[in-house]
Write a structure and sequence with these properties.
Blueprint (H helix, E strand, L loop, with lengths): L12 H9 L3 E5 L4 E4 L12 E6 L4 E13 L5 E14 L2 H22 L19 H20 L2 E8 L4 H6 L18 H8 L14 E5 L14 E5 H7 L4 H4 L4 H8 L7 H18 L5 E5 H11 L5 H7 L17 E2 L2 E2 L3 E6 L6 E8 L7 E4 L2 E4 L5 E5 L22
Helix pairs in contact: 2-3, 3-9, 10-11
């Protein structure tokens, strides 16, 4: 940060430590670590600007600050290289908020039924303001925008890039991609849910295979624990099994019968709650980020996957945030220096160093590891010594072998056996 508190370009941690040691800067914030210069204003600084890239998710969101510079590629052409400056993964509390609201609703329902039994039912025609989101989804939007605001306060963010993902929940529920009129038909189209379950489970109890008895519709994942009313979460159970299971998890109720547990679990499909939350927060997130005063661009999720796969990177929220954005952008990689010979020496040469003064004063002999800056490292029996190339004298060129002197060890005299 500048003297007046305006954001400046990020610097290397070593540079920040040097500024703090010289007293030219003070610590403004610990996380993310931010310093404020004491002797420079924003007008006297060169600020190119950075980009904020966001990979929103239902359980976690990745954010990354990047800058882009033109560098020479392997074929000599100029390419735009993107460099990640800082990455943050934000963990959401949407599930805990949803559970807390369900508990609160249960407490209120119990009080209303126990203390006000003659009270008329509360009407279900209450309206909601435009742009209303469920509290668990609104929490995700608020926390992402809050962190983005902090980044804009401490870094010169010039543009914001957001990954946009839309999930086809109907196709996810069916298990295959639906096309055309298939979207208008559900898994139990043309029949009732109870009839669908009877055909699916053979008109028998899913827990004990009992037939010819009254069967109840049972939730595999109890509603009290966040289970849904989807057909994939429903089975048929006899009255004793239904009462015995109650609100227990399926894995604990069928711990004594692993084969039946595996058969029932194989028919359970993943929850669509995360996909529904992502479909709900996409538009609200873009609209709220626009209020920060920076241009906001949306990019499809398939483009992020393509960039990450082409770069050979692992899957994570911070990595996905790094690759969000326009195509045709490369990432800087460390490249070996083309020249292997520096100041007349090559790594592996046997040299003698005569250091006149300093910590390593004396005469040293050993193999040298060259550096382009002219201060090679010399391997000696006492350790490595950093020396200037002006104090070196070549003894022998490196031939791929290492030589050393050592005393001859006398062999042990053992009696002959014969």
């Amino acid at each position: 940060m500048a003297k007046g508190g305006q954001p400046l370009m990020p610097c290397h941690p070593a540079r920040a430590r040097e500024l703090l040691r010289r007293g030219r800067a003070v610590v403004a914030r610990q996380t993310p670590f931010t310093i404020r210069l004491r002797d420079r204003t924003r007008a006297a600084s060169e600020v190119d600007g950075v980009q904020l890239r966001i990979d929103p998710g239902s359980r976690g969101t990745g954010m990354a600050l990047t800058d882009e510079k033109r560098e020479a590629g392997q074929d000599g052409e100029k390419v735009v290289a993107r460099r990640g400056l800082i990455g943050v993964e934000l963990r959401h509390r949407g599930d805990r908020i949803h559970l807390s609201l369900r508990q609160r609703a249960g407490y209120r329902r119990r009080r209303r039924s126990a203390n006000l039994r003659y009270r008329a039912p509360r009407s279900d025609n209450r309206t909601r303001p435009d742009g209303w989101l469920p509290p668990s989804v609104q929490h995700r939007v608020d926390t992402m925008v809050s962190l983005a605001t902090r980044f804009c306060r401490f870094a010169p963010v010039t543009e914001i890039h957001v990954e946009s993902a839309a999930f086809d929940t109907h196709s996810l529920s069916a298990g295959w991609k639906l096309i055309g009129e298939e979207h208008q038909r559900g898994p139990s189209a043309g029949t009732e849910i109870r009839t669908h379950l009877r055909e699916r489970w053979g008109n028998a109890c899913a827990y004990c295979d009992a037939v010819g008895v009254p069967l109840n519709v049972e939730h595999l994942h109890p509603r009290s624990r966040g289970g849904s009313d989807r057909a994939a979460n429903l089975v048929l159970a006899c009255v004793p099994c239904n009462h015995a299971k109650g609100a227990k998890p399926l894995s604990r109720f069928l711990a004594h019968d692993p084969e039946r547990l595996a058969r029932i679990t194989s028919q359970v499909r993943a929850s669509l709650r995360d996909a529904a939350a992502m479909n709900s927060l996409g538009g609200a997130l873009l609209l709220t980020l626009t209020a920060l005063g920076r241009p906001v661009r949306s990019w499809p999720a398939v483009l992020t996957h393509t960039h990450r796969t082409a770069a050979g990177l692992d899957k994570s929220h911070t990595i996905d945030a790094l690759v969000v954005g326009r195509p045709g952008v490369g990432f800087p990689r460390l490249r070996r220096a083309r020249g292997k010979k520096h100041f007349g020496y090559v790594t592996g040469d046997l040299v003698r160093a005569e250091i006149p003064s300093g910590r390593w004063a004396g005469v040293w002999t050993g193999r040298v590891s060259v550096r382009a800056r002219g201060q090679p490292s010399l391997a000696t029996p006492g350790g490595r010594v950093n020396v200037s190339h002006q104090h070196l004298r070549l003894l022998q060129r490196g031939d791929g072998y290492a030589y050393e002197l050592r005393p001859e060890v006398a062999s042990s005299m053992s009696p002959k056996t014969g």
